[in-house]
Design brief:
Phenylalanyl-tRNA Synthetase, Chain B, domain 1; Non-ribosomal Peptide Synthetase Peptidyl Carrier Protein, Chain A; DNA-binding; 155 residues; globular; homodimer
DNA sequence: ATAATGAAAGTCAATATTAGTCAAAGATAA
DNA sequence: TTATCTTTGACTAATATTGACTTTCATTAT
C-alpha cells in the first residue's frame, strides 16, 4: 500500500542491510540495475534520505573499483551532540531536515516520542503558516536551536 | 438527510473503509476518477469532513508515488478543554498570556514539566526573534494552537 | 615517468508525477 | 433573498525520475 515510489523502496533496502551491519558498501551501477533505475537516482536517494541529519555518513570513491559507503553514526558518541546538531542546522532548516534531526534525537533517546512530536508540530509548515519560505526556515531553525540549547541546561 | 451530494458520498466511502482499517491511503486522482469529480474536490472533502476535531489525522506526499493518508485517532477526554483554550487564544497571544496557558495545562497535568518548558522555549520572544510584535504574537498563537490540537488525541 | 584509456561516481537541469491553494461560479438551505 | 455549502479549474508547490555532461581514479600503453 505504501512506498509506491522506487526511491522509498531503495531506501528501505539499504536500511534493511544497515539493520544488521555497521555499514553498507555498494557499487552504484549494481544497485541501479537491481531496481531498474538510472545510476544517478542512487545519488538522489542518498542525498534525500541518508543525510547527516538522518544520522548517516556517506563516503565514496570514483574510478575503477569505485564504491559508495553508507554508515550509520550515533550522535551520542560524538563529544557534543547538541553542538554538532546546532552547527548542522545553522540559521535555516527545511521541514524535511528538521524531521530528520528530531528523529535522530529520538533514536538517540535525547527526546522521548511525545517531546519529538511536540517539536515537529511546533515547527510544522502549516503550524508556522508564513508564506515567506526563508522566514519559515529560519523560524524553524531558531525554534529547534532554542530547544536544543534548553536541553543542555536541564538535568 | 438525503445527503445526495458527491462530497457526502465520498465522505461515506472513505469512512466505510476506515470502519475496518486503521487508516486509508489513497491516490487523489484515483478517487477523483472513481467519483467523477476534479481532484481538488478530494481536498475539499478532507478539509470539511476529516478534521482533527472529528478525530482524523491527515498526511500526504506529492510527487511520484504520492498519496493522501487518513487515520482515525482516539480523541481524549481533554478535547473540549482544549477547544476552549484554542478559542481564547484566537490568532494572537502575548508571551505573558502564553505562560499562563501553559502553566494551567501543567497544573491540570495535561503537560509535564519538561513538555511545558519545551513549549515556553519554542514560543519565547527571543527564540522567535522577529521584530514585528504582531507577527510574534500570531506565530506564538499558531504554535500553541498546533500543539493543543496535537494533544487532543493519543499517538 | 607520462599519456591515454576506461571505469567508476557526481552534478545539474529538464521533465514527469503527484498533491495543495484559492477564488469564482453554481447549488442549496434558511 | 441571502448566507452557506459545493463544485470546478487554473495555477502553484513538492517530490521523483531521467539523462547528458563532468570529474576522479586506476590501469595500461608509450
Amino acid at each position: 500500500m505504501q512506498s509506491q515510489n522506487i526511491s522509498d523502496i531503495i531506501e528501505k533496502y539499504l536500511k534493511s542491510i544497515l539493520a544488521d551491519a555497521e555499514h553498507v558498501e555498494i557499487r552504484r551501477s549494481e544497485i541501479a540495475d537491481l531496481f531498474n533505475v538510472v545510476p544517478s537516482q542512487i545519488n538522489y536517494v542518498i542525498k534525500t534520505r541518508f543525510t547527516i541529519q538522518n544520522g548517516y555518513l556517506v563516503e565514496s570513491k570514483r574510478g575503477g573499483g569505485g564504491y559508495i559507503r553508507i554508515e550509520k553514526v550515533n550522535l551520542l558518541d560524538d563529544a557534543d551532540v547538541l553542538d554538532t546538531l546546532i552547527q548542522v542546522i545553522g540559521d535555516s532548516i527545511t521541514q524535511r531536515d528538521a524531521y530528520a534531526v528530531v528523529q535522530s534525537l529520538y533514536e538517540d533517546e535525547v527526546l522521548n516520542r511525545r517531546e519529538a512530536q511536540l517539536i515537529l508540530v511546533a515547527t510544522d509548515r502549516n503550524t508556522l503558516g508564513v508564506d515567506d519560505h526563508d522566514l519559515e526556515n529560519s523560524l524553524r531553525a531558531r525554534i529547534i536551536i532554542g530547544i536544543l540549547n534548553h536541553l543542555r541546561y536541564e538535568s
